[in-house]
Amino acid sequence: xxxxxxxxxxxxxxxxxxxxxxxxxxxxxxxxxxxxxxxxxxxxxxxxxxxxxxxxxxxxxxxxxxxxxxxxxxxxxxxxxxxxxxxxxxxxxxxxxxxxxxxxxxxxxxxxxxxxxxxxxxxxxxxxxxxxxxxxxxx
Length: 139
Prior knowledge:
mainly alpha, 2 domains, 3-stranded antiparallel sheet, 4 helices
């Protein structure tokens, strides 16, 4: 199913590129810009899956299993309440890409790159009690 979607998305992007070029050559810059925005949105399509539930019910364990992780660096696990922040997991589709995290803070738009081992420093109650570091989310 996902392979079919990927093929259709590639085809749609190729057609959109032709339409964008036609609009640009015809002096329709507003239309060309809208098509370019569409291409960007379609190219960035993600599957969003929310995992919610009561405390200590295995959400992080499930995520680690789905991500194929053999450790809990990305989705920390503990006997006590552990994860206390929003963590967004993104697969870039690039198998050669460096595994990393980006932490975003409430008071600034740009994020800081971190190693996966540092994720728990920002999203766990133990290392960031009551979100004293003002973390908005970690990707």
